[in-house]
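Hi V.,

Quick status before I head out on leave. The structure for the redesign project is tokenized and pasted below; the design run finished overnight.
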């Protein structure tokens, strides 16, 4: 990471009036990213200059998965184009340029500049230009009120109104670093009123925009991803290795490298080649012409024989043509298909051109596993490097290290563009670690998820603008769509019923995986991920390390799902209490109080963010946890079970699978008693079995007596 060499600015003949002393005024050849950190592999000659109408921001973008980011000023109305360029240049380079957050020193990230430039600033400037504005100083307060009315008259969506109002405020708060002609009126826009008051409406919370993937879609998606990893990967890697070997032998890749052959050596190789085809009952590798007829695939044959493609026009080529072998409909690899699906091969014989597709599908399957079962953000997953996973033998945990970008700031609150290494690693389960190991076997890139599994050689000086080597968010989203399409097509061909149904929430995008994991951990703790691994196990593992730290963000997603789950439970508990449900046990009074008080306290409560949900979960009124035949009214100081989390942690929960009969946090509802009655009946059958082993008979007799005592107390004990 370096900064460009010092630039000598072209001083204009006259500096604009009111230019603050600490504001640099750019000249035509001033570098756009003059005061930004740039990538060390950037060609200085290709850095954008102020006079350019398209500014390339990519030299200042360090995330490997980032898409190409540029600013095209040709979309800005011509009267305001130069004023906008001066304004944006200051946002990028002025040390006092800041975000609209409360921090006065936090600079706006380049990616954020690009987002608001296209999404919200450009429509504002278009409206200004339509009113004859050519300098920002010409905007009046009355005009801003007219703009507010125009947003309403045009029916602009509420979230877009918020963003466009934000851009007016952003321009206003930077008055102090701009000359007079670029300053909005001195008075705050719209008399300083809050946007929610101006619009008499609020935006939907972030949590409502990230939809969970339905259980009907997520479960088969995960099963197929794991099937690719555990069952198909050996065949795919072997085919991919053979493909790469043959690709390296292609004539165009071996110019000047091919060794000379001794007389008769090639003919001997051809004899062996033809003999092997005959023994297997196969034809010559073929390709189909546009008219549908088949012809030998000479380039592929040349790769197999490690010779020149000109073999087609030699005596050796005639020897192949006169062999009497038919021409196959494709070029098939020698790699055998060994894995099966219900006794059938999972794939027909693999053609040469199919190997890259299968390798990409395997890489996508590994992404689904790692992203879903780690709880990490998409950008963090896409920037993982080779060697990121290790095993702590003392703790028995798989640890995954990587960079984080969201929230990575220096001491002054400015974003660190190259990201920062996590102080604490993710804790992942073994199948996610296995997926990482497979990715490292699949390619040679230093990134786990490179944009291409086989690097493309570039000519010096002809690099593409996008320097990121990792897959972009949209690319991995497209890969998941293709993965689902492949699975469903194979299910159709084999008559299988375990296809991946379309999700009601739309396309299965990577950003939805983490929210979905939080839902499964909270709602389906005993649901199987693979073999004997349950979501409850993933919950326990993840909360022991990075994914359980608040900086990771996953707990915020989990807290929101937990909040929804508990509020649904409180509503149902209150409905049953009002209908006359009886509650017994040492914590019965606490149960009744909490249900009634929680309903009054939280009914209709609106959450501002997932982190707000996490904070709310610490309220004792919400510490009601229904288990199997029991209800825990949790008081961490009195709990007899092994708690999940520290006593003073707002996210602490009881281990309802470890419930102790003598715990003072226990309560029993009518629902619990019905479960215990069924269990008691099952135990009675075992106790009455004269053939039951004595040890088992005694153990089940004690448990039966305990359950009958609970039922008896509930039915005939004192009632409120």
């Amino acid at each position: 990471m370096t900064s460009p060499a010092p630039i000598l600015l072209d001083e204009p003949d006259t500096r604009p009036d009111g230019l603050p002393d600490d504001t640099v005024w750019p000249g035509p050849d001033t570098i756009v990213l003059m005061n930004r950190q740039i990538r060390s592999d950037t060609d200085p000659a290709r850095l954008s200059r102020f006079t350019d109408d398209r500014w390339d921001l990519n030299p200042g973008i360090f995330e490997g998965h980032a898409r190409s980011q540029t600013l095209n000023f040709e979309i800005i109305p011509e009267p305001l184009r130069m004023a906008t360029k001066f304004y944006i240049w200051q946002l990028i380079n002025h040390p006092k340029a800041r975000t609209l957050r409360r921090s006065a020193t936090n600079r706006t990230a380049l990616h954020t500049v690009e987002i608001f430039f296209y999404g919200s600033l450009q429509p504002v400037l278009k409206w200004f230009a339509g009113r004859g504005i050519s300098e920002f100083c010409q905007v009046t307060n009355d005009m801003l009120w007219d703009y507010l009315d125009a947003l309403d008259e045009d029916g602009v969506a509420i979230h877009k109104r918020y963003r466009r109002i934000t851009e007016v405020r952003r321009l206003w708060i930077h008055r102090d670093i701009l000359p007079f002609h670029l300053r909005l009126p001195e008075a705050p826009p719209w008399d300083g009123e809050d946007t929610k008051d101006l619009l008499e409406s609020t935006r939907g919370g972030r949590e409502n925009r990230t939809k969970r993937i339905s259980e009907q879609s997520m479960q088969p998606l995960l099963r197929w991803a794991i099937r690719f990893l555990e069952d198909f990967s050996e065949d795919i890697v072997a085919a991919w290795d053979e493909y790469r070997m043959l690709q390296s032998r292609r004539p165009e890749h071996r110019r000047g490298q091919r060794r000379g052959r001794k007389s008769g050596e090639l003919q001997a190789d051809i004899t062996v080649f033809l003999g092997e085809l005959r023994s297997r009952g196969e034809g010559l590798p073929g390709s189909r012409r546009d008219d549908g007829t088949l012809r030998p695939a000479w380039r592929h044959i040349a790769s197999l024989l490690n010779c020149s493609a000109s073999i087609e026009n030699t005596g050796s080529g005639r020897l192949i043509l006169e062999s009497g072998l038919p021409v196959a409909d494709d070029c098939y690899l020698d790699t055998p298909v060994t894995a099966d699906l219900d006794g059938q091969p999972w794939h027909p014989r693999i053609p040469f051109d199919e190997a890259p597709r299968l390798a990409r599908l395997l890489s996508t399957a590994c992404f689904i596993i790692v992203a879903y079962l780690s709880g990490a953000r998409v950008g963090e997953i896409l920037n993982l490097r080779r060697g990121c996973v290790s095993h702590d033998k003392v703790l028995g945990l798989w640890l995954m290290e990587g960079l984080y970008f969201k929230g990575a700031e220096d001491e002054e609150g400015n974003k660190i563009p190259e990201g920062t290494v996590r102080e604490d690693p993710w804790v992942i389960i073994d199948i996610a670690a296995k997926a990482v190991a497979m990715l490292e076997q699949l390619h040679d890139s230093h990134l786990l998820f490179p944009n291409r599994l086989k690097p493309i050689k570039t000519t010096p000086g002809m690099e593409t603008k996008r320097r990121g080597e990792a897959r972009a968010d949209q690319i991995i989203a497209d890969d998941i769509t293709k993965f689902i399409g492949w699975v469903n097509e194979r299910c159709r061909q084999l008559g299988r019923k375990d296809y991946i149904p379309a999700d009601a929430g739309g396309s299965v995008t990577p950003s939805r995986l983490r929210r979905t994991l939080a839902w499964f951990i909270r709602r389906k703790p005993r649901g199987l991920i693979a073999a004997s691994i349950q979501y409850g196990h993933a919950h326990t593992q993840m909360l022991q390390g990075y994914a359980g730290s608040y900086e990771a963000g996953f707990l915020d997603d989990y807290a929101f799902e937990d909040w929804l789950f508990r509020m649904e439970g409180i509503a149902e508990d209150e409905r049953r209490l009002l209908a006359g449900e009886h509650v017994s046990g040492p914590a019965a009074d606490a149960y009744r109080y909490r249900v009634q008080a929680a309903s009054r306290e939280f009914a209709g409560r609106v959450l501002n963010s997932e982190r707000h949900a996490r904070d709310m979960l610490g309220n004792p009124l919400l510490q009601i946890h229904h288990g199997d035949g029991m209800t825990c009214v949790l008081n961490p100081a009195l709990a007899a079970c092994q708690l999940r989390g520290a006593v003073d942690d707002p996210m602490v929960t009881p281990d309802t699978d470890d419930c102790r009969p003598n715990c003072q946090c226990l309560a029993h509802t009518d629902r619990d008693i019905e479960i215990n009655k069924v269990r008691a009946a099952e135990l009675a059958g075992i106790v009455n079995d004269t053939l039951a082993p004595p040890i088992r008979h005694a153990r089940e007799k004690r448990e039966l007596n305990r359950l009958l005592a609970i039922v008896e107390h509930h039915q005939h004990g004192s009632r409120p």
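Above is the designed sequence. The first helix runs from residue 78 to 93.

G. will cover questions while I'm gone.

Best,
W.
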